[in-house]
Amino acid sequence: MAAERGHRPSPPEAYPWLVYSDGKDQIFCSISNTKETYIRTIPELQNKTCLASTTGHGWCLYSYSSTAPDWCLLCLWNPVTLEKITLPPLNLKAQYIKNCILSSSPTEPDCMVILFVSEPPLIIYCGNIIDGEWIKSSYLEELNQSLHKAGKNKLQNYSNERILDPVCCNGNLYGVTSFGNMIVQIHIIQPNSLKISPIVNIPFAHVPQYSDVWLTLVMESCGELFCFNIMFTDSSGRYMTAIVIYKLDFDKLVWLKVESAKDRAFFLSFNFDNQSYNGFSCPAATEIEGNCVYLTLADGHKKLYSYNIEEGNLSVSSPFPNLPTRKSSPIWVMPADLRLSSTMKEAKHRINMEEQGSEKVQEKVNDLEDVEEANETKAHLPYLPLDMVKLIAKPLILVDYLHFRATCKMFHSVAPQIQWRIATPRLVNPSLSPWLVLFGKESVYSFIDPNHGDKYLINLPQVLKEGSIIRSSKDGWLLVTVRMSTFFFNPFTQALLPLADCSFHIRNPCMGFSSTPDSSECVAVEIKDKTANSSNFFVNYCSPGNEDWDEWEFEYTNFSFDCNSPVFYKGAFYYLGKEGNLGILKLNNEEHSFEVLTKPKPPCNGNFQKFLVECNGELLSIFVAPFGKWVRVFKLNESKMTWVRVENLGNYMLYVSHTSSMSAIVKSPGMENKIYFPRFYGESIVFYSLETDNYHSFKSKDVVDFYSTTEVLCCGWIEPRWC
């Protein structure tokens, strides 16, 4: 699509813009329509580099060349009013400027411009932006002394400590220490003199299984301080796995997890080259969906992501057109009149559940009395003989039985409630197709049937209600962690089996188990990946009943564990690495081993999502191209040790996610030869058909556009098992 060209966005709608620059033109991208861009040639910005977008005041900091090699010239520019304010020259190279803070609008006489510099670590500020001078203050010694006095920094070498993410909140200046992970308050006492006071530690979320790297960012919003834990699969920053947001209670100095923010939206953009970001918030409006975090990632920065805080899902736009061919990190610009004027009113999402005595499965349906009132207007229901009602209920499978009981009061009274802990032979209990499972906001697990789209809720034991994380799944059992504790949990029977407490933080990509925990052969494994300082891997493993986790160390420099779950296959754990190669872990009583296979060769080369599945006694690998461009399935030919392309799954279907991938034989016509993903198109789960080579959903006959789907980040698949 041809972009509109001119001298400014016309009209400048009252919402944030994402702005790219190629040195000559500025490209304005609208969040209301990601298929259109506005190219502007603004003479004042020719050959200038944008260093930062100042939070909350609508101005951007630009640098441009100086005849003196060690000096940089700076200016502030307002993209809406086109005003430009030239700042005093600065004896510093521009690339070392990481952040810019304005104490107020630069049109006000008392505005102070504050720069944070990485090398050397300096805070530079100017109180008279027209004809004043820059004042440089080195903060390293004061920072480390204050941390040491407060008992927050026990390190002997403080030379690498820096202040990151500066932010103004309620007239005070705050920052985050790079290694101490501490919020500090910065007091400018007098020229060349700073006082730094430690305030509170940064919160760290319990990360999903497949998160390996995360960023911690601090932002001000309407007089409140927020901390973002943003998690990625690796250091490339291309694949995000979760965002967890906290708000600081200044009175108690504790962080409160934000479950919902319906009155506002947050905007973030990252520059992974110099490890800086800019961000702010603004109120929800017609063009701005509340409860969302809008951001760009390091995938060329050409797409806009939207993360729903309450639902925990991620959507991505189609690429912006007409962007610079060379890599360019964008910035957000915001009109100054979009600043929030009211405090956050957090409201937890209330799930309407029907309490059915001791039943653990509850369906998200309308209130039972409303259903009864609507249905009993139909004459045929009240006049059915009770014997006939009992006869209808008797052959129903478990899920249909729940539907039947919720129909009206008469059906509810005739069909007795299910005691889930007791076998119910009178009910037909076939093996159902896998369901998608995710942790709900009301301390329950939500289950979604991909065929019908039905949603079910199951209560959790008290010990799992404090933020349990799904690590793996097999035969109706979940392997979950709560902080340093690990459990096997069957949500359908409510059976809960604890494993020994961990002496380590579970945070690396690979965790799985061999068989159901009631088996004597059951063992849970967790891989601690190699670090920058060591090429060794560590395997932690434990069986039910063991008092401790055992650890085994091994070295392999030619294998990198990827963000997918292992498959227990023929007595060993199989891992599909980042390069598409196979690794085999064998835990024997006498000798353990980890072997990286030279064959088969990876069937696909590139940065793809990968999954490993056992299907009908064979090993399958699934590769997904970036942004779902294509999906390919391969079968391992063990006699020749090669991957063979699979064009048809027959009567089988595959379910893939980072925490659990599995296969199943078709139970309902029309579900076969498909791969089901933790993605939604509206309220329906998305699948990829090997017959059509396209994405679809059961509630739409049309091909589903990948960019119209949302991905649930923290979830998994489970096979329903009541006995």
Automatic annotation (TrEMBL):
InterPro entries, sorted: KIB1-4_b-propeller
Sequence ranges assigned to domain KIB1-4 beta-propeller in this UniProt record: 30-307, 450-678
PANTHER family: F-BOX DOMAIN-CONTAINING PROTEIN, TRANSMEMBRANE PROTEIN
Protein name according to UniProt: KIB1-4 beta-propeller domain-containing protein
Organism: Quercus lobata
